[in-house]
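Predict structure. Chain length: 119.
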Amino acid sequence: MYSLLLVAVGGGLGAVGRYMIANLVRNLSSSSFPKATLIVNSLGSLLLGILFGCEVGKTTLLLIGVGFCGAFTTFSTFNWETIKLWNEGNLKAGIYFIAGYIFSILSGLGGYFLGVLLL
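Prediction complete.
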């Protein structure tokens, strides 16, 4: 039961964090390109990489890794935005798709190595 509570609290904070960053990015940018999702997915991957690099305990991994990062990052929104760009006949769909994966993977790797250094 304690594990579920950790995931729920982390998930609530992650969802609120994603919402706040998405709104901030939309308010600061006039472009229709979905930058907010790229940003949150990259930040979430960075944080998750740091957690694994630091070899955090189960409690921290449940709260921040599973809960916060799980709710903060958004694979479904990323896919929907890619499909939306594609259906609009927008060539940016390919750029967005590739950038989303590359940024997230590189952020995760960078976070892992940063976490190892912090350990």
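Summary: The radius of gyration is 15 Å.
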